Amino acid sequence: MSKPLSALAILLSVVVVLLARSGEHFIRVDAGGPSVRMLMTGNGGPTVVFESGSGSPLETWVRVQPEVSRFTFTLSYDRAGNGLSEKGPVPRDGARIASELHAALINSRARPPFVLVGHSLGGPYIRIFAGMYPQEVAGMVLVDPTQEELIEWAQARDPKPERTPRPYDEVDCAPATFAQARASQIPAGIPVVLISGMGPSEIPGFLPADLKAELQKDQQTLYPAKLRFHKQWTDKIPNAKLIITKNSGHGVPFEEPELIVDAIRQVAQQASKRPGTGP
Question: pTM of the predicted model, to two decimals?
Answer without folding.
Answer: 0.90
